[in-house]
Amino acid sequence: MPVPCVRVPTERGEETRQALAARDLLDRRYEITASEGSLYVPVTDRGAVPAGYEVVDRDVPARETQTTPADVLGVDPSYERLGDIVVLDEDDPERARQVADAIVASDLRATTVVNRASKVSGELRVREWDVLVGESTETVHREYGHEFGVDIAEVYFSPRLATERHRVVEQVNNDECALDMFAGVGPFAVPMAARGADVVACDLNPVAVAYLRENARRNGVDNRVTAIEGGVRELVTDYAGWADRLVMNLPHTAGEFLDTAVELAGAECVVHYYDIQHEDDPFGPGTRAIREAAEPGYEVAVETERVVRSYAPHEENVCLDVRLTAR
């Protein structure tokens, strides 16, 4: 029986699969198939597929039944995938052990299972992990057609932000000058370079910068990415007035660097400013802080106010897309 499928060139297959999965449109009852240079991705609702994708009817095989962790446990556990690492967030160590054992007993592909043992902390934004299965905390994560080597014990990385990162990257134009002020292993910097931007990416963590350089090479954009180890304030000497686009993904303390962002901004610059604020006024504090830092030298126009995710009870992780235009 024919089912609706998105048809894309095979080289866009993983990017498309992730985009559809992010919108909960993958029809997991059927296999993804390939034929004559095209990939056919089954979808649950053809009417909800975003514009720009081709939807066709095609006979595709039903998936064979697989054992899931929920089948083993009797309830559906919460976990995240990061490459071949499964990440748990269980407060009860016994419950974490049960979920880890269920993952091993299932058909879920994983070489390592970890449970969060601390919050993100310190200047380098890392956390501690309880390794429940396997040994290595290093993996290769695939996101919207790009690959990122990462060691979660040494650097900060959140797969939850994939859709948000893609939203920002889609705004990047060819030959832009883009500066990622807190770059990590490059999940903003690498795809921005792939869009044709010249990217400067900075981070205090030497391990993150080493992965950033490796990831730029891995994705074939090392000629467009300048990776710098150190504090972003040190960039002002060489890059004052350089940036057409600034990414400020340091939600708790990005406001402390707005003076530096203004110095780095070119005559017209889009700033992606990440913040964590109370749900009663999630965007006001960031907007006021940006205006205080940028005015009167720049006209400030808030183009997008976006709740990225819930961070904690009554607290939101938000992004402001702000255009600065020199007066």
From TrEMBL:
This is tRNA (Guanine-N1)-methyltransferase. InterPro entries: MeTrfase_TRM5/TYW2, SAM-dependent_MTases_sf, TRM5-TYW2-like_MTfase, TRM5/TYW2-like_N, Trm5a/b_N. Residues 79-326 form the SAM-dependent methyltransferase TRM5/TYW2-type domain. One of its GO terms (molecular function) is tRNA methyltransferase activity. Gene3D superfamilies: 3.30.70.2580, Vaccinia Virus protein VP39. Keywords: Cytoplasm, Methyltransferase, S-adenosyl-L-methionine, Transferase, tRNA processing. CDD domains: AdoMet_MTases (cd02440). The keyword Transferase applies. SUPFAM superfamilies: S-adenosyl-L-methionine-dependent methyltransferases. It comes from the Archaea. GO terms for biological process: tRNA N1-guanine methylation. It comes from Halobellus salinus. It holds the Pfam family TYW2_N_2. GO terms for cellular component: cytoplasm.
